Every structure is written in structure tokens, then in C-alpha cells.
């Protein structure tokens, strides 16, 4: 195990586990944003495709962009009944603007992705994404870690979420999986940048609005970006 994408592509977590998290995000997203049938969505770092699964029936087209081929394969199965979903595989070295040529999005969602990327790469992606937004297009970056965040507190929030939902299977799955994978987790680089670091780097390039209550990690931040 030498990278976060490898950690996430491990099918050890069940579909139900990912779906429970995606449901929370999508239901909060729909309360605060108006995704319409004539709009296009980019699910950046969309993983196994559960956010895409819930939101694609509500828009014209959803594009899931991922660096892990294994996760894309899983996302294709998860979304096999949704005909308006497209897939883009992005290697870290690929040029994002080239990969997105021909696409214009109303919403770009990056849920729980930014903190696993090197900050310079993430900022470069955001610069490139400006050219792929429609007029009034927006980028929503969620589940960002806050300054001095702590792994144990973060993990506790997830466990508490499944417990409070009465989702005993999700709770036990999370508990035992994280114990099995603890060695992998500890050998990976911890989140290097917080929402505050990102905001500092984006000054003058994007207008930032802070959004609350989007994901199950109640202590994490979300920011909505519109190009300046
Ligand atoms: C914690 S998972 C989140 C998955 C999904 N967004 C969700 O909320 O269920 C992080 C995802 O980001 C993807 N990822 C990491 N680096 C990436 C990159 N450079 N480009 C695209 N995706 C990336 C990983 O492969 C993984 O699927």
C-alpha cells in the first residue's frame, strides 16, 4: 500500500457503506443547491460512483473522473442503469484541460478528494477547471480537513454517524476494516493541507463561500468556488 488511491480502491468496504455516506452528502447538496435536468455535473475523484449514482438521474449528464481504474470499473457497475454517465480516467501526470476538452459543467463536485492530493497539483486542477465551467458554473469542494485536524477525531465522527443511523453493519464494517487496515493507514502520508491552506492559495483566483452541513464528517469544511 503506497498511495491513498490504492487505499480507497480496495473493495473491502461494501457498496452499502459508501452509499450511506453518499446519501447524506446528496440529500444535503440538494437542500442547498438546485441541480437541474438541463445541467452537467463533474464528479471529480468520484471513486466507486455513489454520488454519481444518486445525482445523475437529476441532471443531463454526469461525468465521473477518477485516477483509479479499479474504482472506475466498480463505478461502471454501480451506474450501469444510468445511461447519462461518462467516465474519464486521469493519471496524475495527465493534463486535466486536455482530458476535459469539449466538456462544460454547471457543477463540479470534489467530495473528500482534495486532502489526498499534493496541494500544488490540486491548485493546478482548479486553475484548469476554470476553462471547463459554464457561465455561473461552480465548484464544490467538500469534506476538507480543518487546521490541526486529528485522525482519531475524524475516524470517530464516521463511527458515530453509522452508530446514530442505527446502521450496525456499517458501524462494524468501519470498525473492523479500519483495524485491519490500520498499518496501511499509518504508513500513508497524513493530510498535508487544510481548508485554510487552500483558501490562502486561491485568493484572487476564485471567490470562496463557506458551506456548512454537507457531509457526515461534521468537523470538516466545505467551500464553494466561483471564478473571480
Ligand atoms: C475518499 S475517496 C472519495 C470518493 C468519492 N468522491 C466519494 O465521496 O465517495 C477519494 C477518491 O479520490 C480519488 N483520487 C485521488 N487522487 C486523484 C486524482 N489525482 N485524480 C482523480 N481522482 C483522484 C481516489 O482514487 C478516490 O477514489
Q: How many alpha or pi helices?
A: 10
CATH topology call: Rossmann fold
| Fraction of residues in H or I helices | 40-55%
Q: Please identify which CATH superfamily we are dealing with.
A: Vaccinia Virus protein VP39
Question: What is the structural class?
Answer: alpha/beta
Query: What is the CATH first-level class name?
Result: Alpha Beta
Q: Unreliable segments (pLDDT under 50, ≥5 consecutive)?
A: none
Query: For the largest beta sheet, what order do the strands appear in spatially?
Result: 3-2-1-4-5-7-6
Query: Which value, in Å, is the CA radius of gyration?
Result: 17 Å
Number of domains: 1
Overall geometric form = globular
The distinct bound ligands, ions and cofactors come out as: S-adenosylmethionine
What amount of the residues lies in strands?
15-25%
Run of helices and strands? HHEHEHEHEHEHHHHEE
Number of DSSP-assigned strands: 7
CATH architecture: 3-Layer(aba) Sandwich
- Summed over residues and divided by their number, the pLDDT gives a mean of 91
Distance between the termini: 39 Å
Main sheet record: 7 strands, mixed
Amino acid at each position: 500500500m503506497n498511495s491513498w488511491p490504492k487505499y480507497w480502491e480496495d473493495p473491502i468496504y461494501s457498496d452499502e457503506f459508501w452509499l450511506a455516506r453518499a446519501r447524506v452528502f446528496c440529500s444535503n447538496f440538494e437542500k442547498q443547491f438546485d441541480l437541474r435536468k438541463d445541467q452537467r455535473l463533474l464528479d471529480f475523484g468520484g471513486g466507486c460512483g455513489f454520488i454519481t449514482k444518486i445525482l445523475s438521474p437529476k441532471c443531463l449528464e454526469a461525468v465521473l473522473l477518477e485516477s483509479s481504474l479499479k474504482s472506475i470499473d466498480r463505478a461502471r457497475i454501480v451506474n450501469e442503469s444510468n445511461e447519462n454517465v461518462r467516465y474519464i480516467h486521469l493519471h496524475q501526470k495527465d493534463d486535466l484541460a486536455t482530458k476535459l476538452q469539449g466538456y462544460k459543467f454547471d457543477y463540479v463536485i470534489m467530495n473528500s478528494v482534495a486532502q489526498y492530493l499534493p496541494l500544488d497539483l490540486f491548485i493546478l486542477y482548479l486553475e484548469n477547471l476554470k476553462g471547463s465551467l459554464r457561465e455561473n458554473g461552480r465548484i464544490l469542494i467538500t469534506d476538507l480537513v480543518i487546521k490541526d485536524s486529528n485522525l482519531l477525531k475524524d475516524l470517530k465522527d464516521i463511527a458515530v454517524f453509522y452508530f446514530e443511523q442505527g446502521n450496525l453493519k456499517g458501524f462494524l464494517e468501519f470498525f473492523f476494516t479500519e483495524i485491519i487496515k490500520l498499518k496501511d493507514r499509518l504508513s500513508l502520508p497524513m493530510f498535508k493541507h487544510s481548508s485554510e491552506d487552500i483558501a490562502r492559495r486561491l485568493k484572487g483566483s476564485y471567490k470562496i463561500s463557506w458551506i456548512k452541513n454537507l457531509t457526515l464528517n461534521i468537523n470538516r469544511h466545505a467551500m464553494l468556488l466561483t471564478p473571480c
